Amino acid sequence: MDGVWLVPLALVAPSPVFALQTHGGEGPYLHQMAHLLFLAAMVLFAWRIQQSRLIVHRPWRLMAAGAWLLALWNLWAFVGHFIEDAMPATSLLQEPGQAVPWLALASWREVAYFVVKMDHLLAVPAIFCFYFGMRGIYRSIRQPPPPTGRGGA
Description:
By secondary structure, the protein is mainly alpha-helical. 60% of the residues lie in helices and 3% in strands. The chain has one domain. The chain is built from five helices and two strands, in the order H-H-H-E-E-H-H. Helix 2 packs antiparallel against helix 3 and helix 3 runs antiparallel to helix 4.
């Protein structure tokens, strides 16, 4: 209970969090392979749902939509890492005393880099699709089955 007083302090005066993240230290080749494997897994998952009888149920359609969006997100991020590598180092400008660098939009590479960094526009809706799909599956499991219309025993 010694650090409990830090929680309100962190809420009032949070430390800075930056939107640009690099993957240089973890091995870019391994990271790119992970994107491809995740892409393949999501395509297979969505395809299996669509080929089954589950696709007639709304929660499973949401799960398939989420999988397709995450597959697209992985492709988007995979290409984005190549664009990031092709971008000149002079494109990110950091003025003295500034913690956040500026992005100079001098060529198509910088514009493409800016666009692919908006991958959350795919990832967030995908997560919502998965959430609502899983919630629907959970609710259908918890509900008793509908009456069949037949007489009792």
